[in-house]
Records
---
Amino acid sequence: MTLALFYIAGAIALAATGIALTRVNAIHALIYLVVSLLAVAFIFFLLGAPFAAVLEIVIYAGAIMVLFVFVIMMLNLGNRGTVVEQEMMNPSVWIIPSLLCLILLIELSLSIASLKSETNPIVVSAKEIGISLFGPYVLAVEIASMLLLAGLVAANHIGRRLSKMDQEKDEG
Amino acid sequence: MNPLIIPLSHVLMLAALLFTAGLLGLLIRRNVIFILMSLEVMLNAAALAFVGASAHWGQTDGQIILLLILTIAAAEVAVGLGLVLQIQRRFKTLDLDVVSRMRG
Amino acid sequence: MTGTDFLALSPIIALAVGASVLLLQIAFLRNLKLTTGITVVTFLACLFFLFYITKLNHQTTPLLLVDPLSTFFSIVFVLCACITTFISYEYLKNRPGRNDEFFLLVVLATMGSIVLTYATHLASFILGLELMGIALYGLIAYPHQDDMSLEAAIKYLVLSGASSAALLFGFALLYAITGSLFFPDLLSGLASPEVAVGPQSPFWARQLILLGSALILAGISFKLSLAPFHMWTPDVYEGSPAPITGFLATISKGAVFAATLRLYVIGEFHNFPTIVTGLTILSIISILVGNLLALRQENIKRLLAYSSIAHFGYLLIALIAAGTLTPNGISAIEPSAYYLAGYIFTTLIATGLIAAISSSNNEENANLSDIAGLFWKNPLLALCLSVSLLSLAGIPLTAGFIGKLYIFQMGVEAGAWLLLSILIIGSGIGIYYYLRLIFSMTTDPSSSRSTLAPALPVTVSLITLTILVLYLGIYPQPLMEYLLWNT
Amino acid sequence: MELLNLLIILFIGGAAAWVGEHFSKGLSRWISLLFIAVAAVSLLEMLSNIPAPTFLKDPITKDPTTWLIHGRADWIPRFGISFELALDGLSLLLVVLTLFLGAVSVIASWDEIDKHQGFFQANIMWTLTGVIGVFIALDLILFFLFWEVMLVPMYLLIAIWGHEDKAKAAMKFFIFTQVSGLLMLLAMITLAIFVKDANGYWSFSYFDLLDNNLTSSLATFIMLGFFIGFTVKLPGFPFHTWLPDAHTQAPTAGSVILAGILLKTGAYGLIRFTVPLFPEASIAFAPIAILLGASGVVYGAILAFGQTDFKRLVAYSSVSHMGFVLLGVFAWNALAIQGAVMQLVAHGLSTAALFMIAGALQHRLHTRDLQKMGGLWQSMPRMGALAMFFIAASLGLPGMGNFIAEFLVLAGLFQVYPWLAVVSSAGLITGAIYSLKLIQESFQGAPDDTLTPPDFSALAMSAMIAMLIGLIVLGIFPQLVLDISQPVINALTSEITL
């Protein structure tokens, strides 16, 4: 039963990702991507990692994707750029990268298939994660905070509109 | 529900498929937003592999790496989307080939 | 957390405190001079703690190992960051817009480099890498009214992000096999794949380990811009603000290499012939591609970008040779650490000078024609740049020569004749473009550009670096002993 | 370590000359001369402390205490690299030649160099420092250091003050020497590592490395590294292609230093390092080396004949003359090596003088093309007479140093390879032809009234006369030079027999 659910979720994740990355319209793509992320979150749940599943939904599907939506809305892209993107679907563009990726994929699958599949019936609870997060990984949390600070400062600076003066100089 | 009837190799296989899908998107797409999405897919695939392996070993480490990947992804996307905004303002397009002017 | 833990972490804490102070200061009072001052004090405090703990060898949680070698690297990085600050101040002071956050990002990026240097665990490795990376995206795109800097930033972000993803996926595969993210434990699983992997097909199981390592290697090669993963380097160097080009070429690459060195030695990756072959190919292609493409460049930043590709190709020779020399590859540490330190100081002179030139010309880039006549206009700076270029070319009396001596010694002891012959060919080509730069400095200037007269701190920094490069070249014994006894 | 003073004096002299430019325009030239004189005095003072009989006693090559002067200090103990300087008769001759030609080159640049005089003099002094370092360094890495470091000021001399095609010529010079130098470095390190494995400790000292028991195939490879490094600098056929360009484009002082001393470092390296370090491999290789030397002699002479550029002609004649050195070294008997050493000194003097004349002509006529010259004797009798003399010396007229040198080499070679000696003497005949062509087309012939350049100045005359006297002394009393180098050559040939 669980295995069947896993396959269904995996198929959904794959299909949604595939559709998302071949869309022309960014918003459509994002919605498929959210579906894919939800499917992955479900897989996390099946794998006995409920905390990871929740994080995946809240942060990934929630916060990060919403950030994308926000920016796409701000840009108000509409259907501009569609023509250019259509050219990207031309086989001459994707055939070589696809072949390369296919080779990588075959290598990966053949090697992964060799893994011994031991089972280990432990569900890792949020409490355990919390303990190790503030045990051996306490420094990781601290460094992550600095990383977010860097992201914040960088994004704040880059995203800022240019001051009037700069813009005038630019246009003039 | 017994969580670990799912073989590790299958989880890794799914992760590998997602990873290659993301890589393919990164290589083919020229729109910066889609490139960022492909990046997210790749990072997410790595996260899936970590969580799968973590479940296999019954450890917390893999899930903590997931947490870190989320943090990294968030920060990267924030900066990346900031760049997207500026690029759209300056170049009036999101096509990376148009943005690329330096050569040689 | 014990007292020793805090002592070991004191340099990082100093930077964190500095970053917080900067954040508060920027919020309440925008003043570039004050910001620069706080940044410099932060770096000096960090340096003080680093010098205080040079003898310390302490594992602080599984994440960070503070040992003399990494402390040495950190000292080099922080010193360079401090000099970058002086150069950046010159660069920023006449630029419009808000320039204060720049230094906050520099402090954070430096912190990333130190974390990376001390990392013994995937978590700290990837966090250090990304902390540095994200701060650098911000720094590269800092003058975001500039098209080239935006282009450079998005290229860097996409490729760096992709390489991080590849790195993580590779580690995930290794984790699936060995169940550990702690570098010293990677070893146990990797050395004998049969322990953890199922019996069905040992060949493919070994392939999986190799594939994971290859993904890690590819990710690292991107960050080190080894050919054929180098495409981004010249564009990003060219598009970045000049002081950040210096940061990218020195601290950022140096920290990634320092971390890789530790991963390679502790993880005993040299036990896999396939990986060593991969490194050999990367090294050969990097040396040839870097040197050949550098020949055509008129833009000094691009030229340095290609030259750095070649230099990291040279550095790999030490890693490749070390595996055959010692069972644990430990002999890679001394030569590559020396080479790296010399390379970092040397490159910072060149990039620092470009920054000074572009600040005085108010242009992002410096071409060969911009340094024409430097020998007669400002002999002191011309001498600094000449020393730097000669060191890059590996002429004696400079740090570059001792580095090359080390690489030769390693190569000969390991019998890597192919690599050594490529190294000689590469150096021969390299001489051509380094001499071309020196020659441009001696020609008579075609245009009457404003004379180059950087502020005192910049001049003093460049001279200090030059003295360091000469010192490392003339009296290398103390550092050699430090590296030898502490590894 | 008193030898170090020599290097320090010259190095500081260079820096002082550069700074001196800021005080007074012509000052740096005087500073250079002064510091060369000080170096010469300090060398004399060192020599005067050595008891006279030591000069006549054969030293033992492997025992540094039997050398004239020897000093050693640790430098990089990690790799057994030391700061080891030593002097024997051979080095002494070459050091004296270097100081003398150094002074000549300063005089040669007296009127020619207007631009950035101070830096020019600094580069001359630093080149001299490097060359002297090469002649006295007995630690291989230290030797390599001087070997490479002297390239940089020499490169600048050509690149900044050279003629039309200076950038390319300077680059070619540097790349040729640098790449072959790296091969040599590789050979040095390989040798040191093998000796380390045998002895158990690192050392790059000449005296330690002499006792290597390398297998023959390995020794051949290492020897080739050294051989190529030195032959490029010599330059021996077929590695000579950098030389005509570098000589032609260099300013006069640069050509004087290049031809007069820099080429000699290659010959010195062959005598000092290649053969003594790898005697067996050298025996096996000697036929090829001698063949290369003979080809150089003939080929250089033929090419020289075809030139219309004064400097280029002299440059190719250098290829021919240095071929004799290669012959002398690899014939490896006392007669031939003596000839080679003699050739170093005599060729240094005669070629330096010819380049000075070429430079003076170019400065006055703004051309080096022989076809545009002719009849210059009329307006410049002094220069003409000198040119006649030095060209005669260079073609090997009996009574002058070059004759003695080439005669000794051929006599020595005849004992080993009689037929090659015969072929090489063909070089002497072609030498006579191109030399006559040179003097005929430049100074003889119908005078051109439009050309009335001034003759040599008194200062230049004094330098020329000094070289003239030197060559005559070498020709008539060769024993003066032979006596200084004889003990060293005796020691080398008795300890190492091919």
Note: The longest strand of chain D covers residues 69-76.
---
Amino acid sequence: MTITEANPGYKGYKYVGTRLIRPDGLEKVTGKARFAADLNLAGQLHGAVVRSPHAHARIVSIDTSRAEAMPGVKSVITGDDFPSVDPGHRQYDMCVNIIARDKVFYEGHAVAAVAASTLEQARAAAAAVEVEYEALQAVLTIDEAMADDAPVLHSHMLTRGAEPPAEAPSNVASVTRFSGGDLEAGFAEADFVVEREFSTKPVHQGYIEPHACVADTGQDGHTTIWCSSQGHFNVRSSTATLLGWENTRIKVVPAEIGGGFGGKTTIYLEPLAAALSSQAGRPVKMVMTRSEVFRATGPAPCAKIRVKFGARSDGAIVAADAHLIYSNGAYQGAGGMLGAMTVFESYKIPNFAVEALDVVVNTARSAAYRAPAAPLTAFATETVLDEIAEELGIDAMDLRLKNAVKEGDPSTMGFPLARVGFAECLEAIRSHPHFSAPLGPNQGRGLAAGYWFNIGESSSAIVNLNEDGTATVVTGSPDIGGSRASMALMAAEELGIDPHDIRPVVGDTEAVGFTDITEGSRATFATGRAVVEACRNMVIELRGRAATMMEAEVGDIDWVDGHAVYTGDGDSEGKEPLSLAVIAGKAKRTGGPLTATGSLEAHGAGPSFTVHLCDVEVDPETGVVSIVRYTAAQDAGTAIHPSYVEGQIQGGVAQGVGWALNEEYIYDSDGVMENPGFLDYRVPVASDLPMIDAVIVEVPNPAHPYGVRGVGEAGIVPPIPAVANAIHSATGCRIRDLPMSPVRVLEAITAAGARANGG
Amino acid sequence: MAVRVHLSSNLRGPTGGVAEIEGSGANVGALIGDLERQYPGLGDALRSGVSVVIDGLLIAHPQYYRLADGAQVFFVPQSAGG
Amino acid sequence: MTRVHVTCTINGDPAEFLCDGGQTLLDALRDEVGLTGVKEGCGTGDCGACSVMMDGRLLCSCLVLAAEAEGSDVSTVEGMASGDELHPLQQCFLEGAALQCGICTPGFLVAAEALLERNPDPTETEVRYALAGNLCRCTGYDKIVRSVMAAARSINAGAGSGH
Amino acid sequence: MRYESPTTVAEAVELLGSEPHARVYAGATDLIPQIRSGRPEPTVMVDLKHIDRLCAITSTAAGFTVGAAAPTADICADGALAAEFPGLVEASGLIGSDQIQNRSSWGGNLANASPAADTPPSLVANCARAVIAGPDGERTVLAAEVATGPGRTSLTPGEFIVEFELDRPPARTADAYLRLTPRTEMDIAVVGAAVRISLDAQGRVADAAVALGAVAPTVVRVADAEAALIGREPAGDALAAVEAAAAAAADPIDDKRGTVAYRRQVAGVLARRAVATAAERAAEPQRGDRP
């Protein structure tokens, strides 16, 4: 189902908006696609990582002699094999996260690595590396981190943004404050004020492909790394930083990526593999086990959130105050900052204040996860809005429509919003049959909205025309959700040739210009713009070649539907339209190969709004929640490939539902993760979900030639509050702590029953 | 170029809480230099981790972005994504 | 270390490989035979990415010792298409956009094929439960389930017209 | 590590007795992950799945004999078994995914001695017997006597379960199994409840077995629930009594999968529901026709 705003250009598109079979699909359904762990090089060694059994400890000594003497072992490295890094360095956290130096900060923290002829030998040698630790008290929760007598993880950590400036180190990495209007006056104006607290647990991105790479250092020191990442240029620079190498000493070749969701925007193994390969003079392959993925790679931050809203009896939100504390794991992170930027962003609130803290604890360093921080702030805001609607007797949809931000309204950060499609998404849900469908016994319905700002950043593209009239489009964006298909469609639209005649590929760091990470829902927006620019440059070239062939002036040649068309006033004899294929076939005779580039820093990423509607059924005796119906409307700007827009929405919903109901990191009292596997870290399985009706709303982004807004992230924002509001609708219970597992839901139902009986 | 500068509320320390100020510069880098002269400390605050929004366009790395006379420049924290 | 010599049939062809006694069928298929379409997502039988058929049974190859394959008939995603012609499931996955990153796709295809052999006309619920052993983190399963049902229809229509 | 696939029980006994670190290899759905996670590797894996007796499902006049290594997928596909023991077959169908079902077995599920295993409560409720082979020959014990604690069994070194014997149930008898998991599939029971009910001609409970899983180190028979049912209609107060008795009999722990309070409360709920389902099934007309 697609709802399109009146947009004169849209209907004119020939290829944009069609459901092309993805160009990389055939390899993926036949098992031929090469993911990172699928590459094997001749003479390759296997690496294994020595990981800390302690959540917090000082490394007293590391003795690698026994490991080095073991059969098959070619290289053993520790933090001492890498250049020292200053805490003030921009990438300090990443560097010491990849291999610990003086201290370990979480169970699973890498302290050494081994390369040996076989994986079994490498693992055996890793087990033989003797590390002496002085165990320190582990700080596992936000409350523990902020206690007055809390052990300080990082002696250099002074709270950024503190007023007055912090003088003593603490576990609070930063403070962010936003405000607008007059909070006190706003609350004074309110007829109803509600204040609530929320808490969540760390969750993992849960990509099915574990991190993997192969590094091969040649005799000249030049190193090639094949790996799965969301950004191979970032892998190159990060690896170089850690090793103290020049960037250009490394080439990174992107393998197919088996899911990332933000978790593969940072790196873990590549510098270790490069260092081992450099020492051993052999290629080194490293693949994480699932347990390593859970214990040592990026969970999303967890948070404690307190929000206070004031509303007038007519439903206008007049004041809001939020206090957010995000735990980012062992190093500073941006959870709180991003939470502060999203908590009130969906609604026009004249008087507001946000204070957000980012704290560190002895758990794995958090990484980005799809709309980082926003699902948690939405959990708070959207469930409290539901309560306000209930209290004031206003329909939850009407309350949101009344307060929804629109073009020109000030963002939390002050600037006026460009054209956004929030109201359109709300209306799309209101007019959907789901909105008024009857509910069965023990069922409830929840509504929630979400917002994500999306980013632009740098992208590069190259278009090469082949002599048969087909095109190769090379970009630097790893394809994490079908972006090659959308690149082919945009290029086809620009060049006027069939998208099947376009082969989109992801180039390595030496084959295409610098391109930032595929993150922030930016690939189709920013890299798409680079492709469009490259194609437009190609069309200029094609017109010139056609002018040569027609003996005409280039200004008299237009590009129409894949053909150079003479439009001049002169004699049109011998100036019949020339197809791209004909021009490409004669390229040698008209000036040489046809190639064009597009490189840009993409400004104007447009935010994506989304509104979800969820029906649940709750077993009142066991607390088990079943998702029985789900509809999600999201503003895609323009859907270049509707199937993959729907896929992004549906995937976001599934992840959000998992986060809402059952996903959580469980630690024992020493900070050891108790559920580092897919059996007890419960991502939703097929039978846990219904069909997810994805409604694409299209309010074009003026900053993109086809109106694209990124769609990758916003979909994960509303599910948690949508589920929470649906559980309330079914049971009367408000649950404000994640996950809303059967245990927690039954506790709430039982407590409510006791209150009812007692009263 | 004389422009109107809007600071997101987390960036107003050096201005003593003032949200809207005047500045000038041919591009955003020059503007930041001018603002630093007016409000010591503000330059540092605006040089890292900060994006601007001009005419509705979010610009992540704005140093050389050219300013038109009378432009409205909003300094905001840099966003990220997953 | 003495390696075990295994003789079996893989995707219809006679095959031989050497493996260690403790090596799993997953590792042997990937590292000894070169069938890297079989993926490891967890190594504990919880994600289904390594699904293969062995003697007519759908298995997680990470939970099977390679030595056990002696004399058996193994099939993987690499054997699904016949020549140039994709299996209807593969075709429907492509047309239905049932894959995003694609790492889970081989396991889903093999498991779905096993399902349709057992139950040629499954309901949505039957598809969801039959594929519950295969994790997908990208798609929310919607398009996978639809594509499996579309493939069932396509196969049944083909069977009807052919006879 | 060596892999052996004997074809007779005697050969398997011989192989298991030949080396101290020999291990039984059946479905291996727990064994292989354990080895991968660093547990010591056995020196020899003795695959029992090539022994016909261990994989056979046989119906006799007296009842059923089910090989200890018969895949639960085969058990679920056996219509005759499902007709007589619907609950036990349901429990068998809940272990992991279809992929796991092609490997998992009653023998493995019981000998693994996980308190949360799905089939042991139903085996206990149906008074299944386990035939065990070992260096001293074969012996037969109640399935209830095999697991003695988490990961511990009464099997002595070199012994393994060959098959299970189930007596054909009397008339108007049926069983049921319910379990609670946060996910619909691919999960470990937080609580499991198996019930077998025999009704008399008047629809009152003549015999009852109520067994709980995942709420104690081993399967718990809830004698008070059984007593509360005998002689009464399986409804109303009797069901309430079952719920209370099951909750009281549960002796669970707090762990990553659930809390003590939750497991107690839900043990009662599931026991009550399982009694209702088993009784409904027992009252089905076709079950009254039996001799």
Note: Residues 260-282 of chain D form the longest helix (23 residues).
